[in-house]
Amino acid sequence: MTESRRPRPPILAWVGWSVVVLLAWVASGASSVPAPPEGALARTLDLLAAFMHPDLGPEALRQAASLCVETVAVAVWGTALGAGAGMALALAASERITLADGRPHCWRTRTTLGLARSILDVLRAIPDFAWALVVLVVLGPGPVTGALALALGVTGLLGRVYSQLLDEVEPNRTRAVELTGGSRLVVALWGYIPGAAGPMLSYTLLRLECSMRNASVIGIVGGGGLGAALFEELGFGRYDRVATLLLVLLALTAVTDRLSKGIARSLRQPGGLTRRRLALGVVVALSMCGVVLGPSLSTAAAELGRLDTEFLVATARGLTSLEPSVEFMRTLLADALVPLGIAIVATALAAMAAAGTMVLVPRTTLGGHAPMLVRGARVVARQGIDLLALVTRAIPDVVWLLVFGISLHMGPLAAIAAIATHSFGLLARLFAEAVDDLPQAAREACMVGSTRVMFVWGIWPRIAGVVWTHVFLQTESNLRAGLIVGIVGAGGLGDAFHDSITFWRLGDASMQAMMMIALTVAVDRVSRRLGARRARAR
């Protein structure tokens, strides 16, 4: 029997992806960034040294604690409002519920389904920082602005997931309710929602973690929380205060992560937390956070009361006054390429760094035949990499942008570095989990040869599909991050949208928002097509 050949790596595919990344680098504008500003290295070293002696005085700790409580309130209320609105839209966006009356070709039900899905697409495509700019115009700055901006984004994300989970409920879970002759709403409330409650709750807890990170930085654009103070302290060069706020942010993220995982684990265990007790806890948490948001809510209500019909009509006319010139459309297209280029380059760098950690320091489960000293060194190195990944993903990419903005010009290069750093933490964890999920027999078959040979020829073929899926999904997420860092000052479409809102060019802002939606939907469709093609190739 002849020895089977090793599969040849797809050289042409790698060359093609390299060309795509190179073109994305050019489109992002990072290649034309000027040299770092004078004194950048000294400021960077001062920031790093500040973590050795953060400001732990009473005033600094009091400020950090107050802002931390405010951040939690913004995240909790933003997630709760988004979950409620997302559920309402998910019921209309679910095929099995909306088309359950036996008239799938009725124009009313089809219109309802299409309209609900379109609303979810729009809410999901526009980043929460962009929503914050819109809400800021009406309600002014404050925690309520941040909560509503988060709620709009969370509505699109959770509504999309909820509708898909409702469509996947097994028919026998709802048949008993359907036989009672109840309406579609009754069947949904007593059949579909209980059938999908478990995964819905898990994803909602995950979204709460993400909302906590977003709430900590949305204050940069007037949404309250830690972000405004962090931005201000960086601007004044008070790095000891910056270190204090970043450490508080890390602690808040870690506590939220532990709490959400503990709730999910307790719900799955017999005799653990019941859904009734969880609902009671949610009511208590919302009440406490509502007390925190009370003063801001009164201010927002007063601002809302000042609105008159003339202002609303003028705003509506401004948003619909679309008169794009050829020059504007050319500029709009160029601005749209910047966040797309940033997303592609940042994802490529993060993926290569995460894969590199797998080559240099393999998972300990793959080193069973190595000497004990080598295995011990691998365990220590692996723990260090896991800690690095935890820190990089715990700090939001906007905060990384502010940090890299100290040593680099605030622009595309700093944005790429920030998003790549944050994405490395996410992809390193996902890649490691993909390796750990391999069956024991597959892991033992890979325990031969050098580390490089083991990864390239043993591990990679078995996890390539999962890895590419994570990379495609992270590219979509990084596109939204590219729009967000643009609003903060990295340039591109986000920066142009910020200027249009600030200077009340509402027609331009409408066109830029539509470009955001089109760009996000296009990337989503391309990633789905590429993922389907790879699945067929396997």
Structure write-up:
The N terminus is likely disordered. Helices cover 79% and strands 0% of the residues. The protein contains 22 helices and no strands. The chain folds into 2 domains: 245 residues, MetI-like fold (Orthogonal Bundle); 241 residues, MetI-like (MetI-like fold, Orthogonal Bundle). The longest helix has 40 residues. The chain has 538 residues and is mainly α. The relative contact order is 0.11.
Q: CATH class of the largest domain, please? A: Mainly Alpha
The CATH superfamily of the largest domain is identified as: MetI-like
- Beta-strand level of the residues, as a percent range? under 5%
**Distance, first to last CA:** 25 Å
